[in-house]
Specification:
Length: about 350
């Protein structure tokens, strides 16, 4: 997982990206009116070998305001202009109308936009635009609180599948956005990736709570590139599952688990895990997660207490999980405090 404060450097990279003539493909922006969370997710056959962060460059999430995806011949000035118009209070459709009328290269028909926000009453608003000169297959879909858009696609089924997954998945906004990306996980969804047998080369999901600071979001996961033939949406899903586990546990009251003893807690330079199972188990997997949801250690428990050297760990709160081959059996927290 990489957490990036990217909006400043994307302006510096704009000239390079425009020279590539690159397009970004399928993405979604959405808002949750109950929680005030705003975010987006997307994937593309543009990866870090072409531009730093790959597809992440399209994303601009403004906590408490809205989200903007600018794709298809991405342009840094157009993106900044959209950002500024949102801060001024223009609606998504007004922003798009302004961008069409004021395209920095006077060529709006090669652009694609998806924008969401909430009005002064908290009601969601959405709008999208697909220029007639974007590469086929191209289209967009909007709903009350979301906009889905893509170009260089296999066909309309990619966008329809993303919408169906988003609407039919129960859970938080990040879970719904991740499900939407899974709806596009088809070989060649971005047709440039057909030869690799993947949907794309890079993928991201980014969701901000209303009180988050710009660039420091509640959920911000990026797969900037993958080895040949490796599906980035699958890699992103693994990161997302780790983040979701951390979030679900870290928001509960502090507790130690029922079958696992962790001592000392807080720990200094070492900590011991002792596990008492009601039934005999040959081996168990203990995973240690850091504060950002990243797995930092994997330990095999085979019946004897495990001593973990914490010298390499900074002070902070950590989560552990205890799993067999099928499911998580136990979990808890421990703290490391160093002098």
């Amino acid at each position: 997982m990489r957490i990036k404060k990217h909006f400043l450097w994307i302006l510096v990279l704009g000239i390079i990206y425009q020279h590539l003539g690159a397009q970004d493909t399928f993405s979604i922006v959405a808002v949750d009116t109950l929680t005030g969370e705003i975010g987006g997710a997307g994937a593309s056959c543009i990866d870090e070998s072409a531009i730093q962060g790959g597809v992440l460059i399209i994303s601009d999430v403004i906590p408490g305001k809205g989200a903007i995806h600018t794709q298809s011949y991405w342009n840094a000035t157009n993106q900044q202009n959209a950002h500024n118009r949102m801060l001024e209070g223009l609606s998504p459709q007004e922003i798009i109308d302004w961008l069409i009328a004021n395209d920095v290269q006077n060529n709006p028909q090669i652009r694609q936009y998806g924008i969401v926000d909430t009005d002064e009453t908290g009601a969601p608003r959405s709008a999208a635009f697909t220029g007639i000169n974007c590469m086929d297959y191209k289209n967009h879909i909007t709903g009350p609180n979301y906009a889905i858009q893509g170009n260089i696609l296999l066909g309309q089924q990619i966008l329809d599948s993303m919408e169906a997954r988003f609407l039919n998945t129960e859970g938080t906004l990040p879970e719904k956005l991740m499900a939407a990306l899974q709806g596009a996980k088809v070989p060649g969804a971005d047709t440039r990736c057909m030869n690799e047998g993947t949907s794309s080369l890079s993928a991201f999901i980014s969701v901000a709570k209303p009180d988050n600071q710009p660039g420091d979001f509640w959920c911000h996961l990026l797969v900037p590139s993958t080895p040949y033939g490796v599906e980035p949406i699958d890699v992103l899903q693994e990161l997302f599952d780790e983040w979701l586990l951390w979030t679900s546990i870290s928001e509960e009251p502090f507790r130690l688990s029922s079958i696992t003893t962790v001592a000392p807690n807080p720990a200094g330079n070492q900590i011991m895990f002792s596990i008492i199972m009601p039934d005999k188990v040959d081996t168990l997997l203990i995973q240690i997660l850091a504060a950002d949801g990243r797995i930092t250690d994997k330990l095999i428990y085979a019946g004897e207490p495990i001593v973990l050297n914490t010298v390499k760990y900074p002070s902070g709160t950590y989560i552990f999980t205890v799993s067999d081959s099928q499911k998580i059996l136990d979990y808890g927290k421990f703290n490391i405090i160093k002098n």
